[in-house]
Amino acid sequence: MQDLLSTMRRLRAPDGCPWDREQTHESLRPYLLEEAAEAVDAVGDDAELCTELGDVLLQVAFHAVIAEERGLWLRRDRAEHRGEDGAPSSARVRSGPG
User: Does the predicted model carry a pTM greater than 0.70?
Assistant: First the structure.
């Protein structure tokens, strides 16, 4: 994940990709919706689901870097949302009984 975030930061850097630098949460909204819908449609086909989840992950990374640039999320904030076991709080909540 850190490699993906680093790549997105490079793409949005002043000497990065002009298209990536222009994007905002709002301009990326249709892409996030499309990729999420494609992931839902791919459930039941493991290979296709893997591909589609990769596309969703790319969108998540894009939005995370934009938020980071705006000072909305800091790297330490994401770390603080992890429990002692290192798992994100959402993973612990959704994991249910062992």
Answer: yes
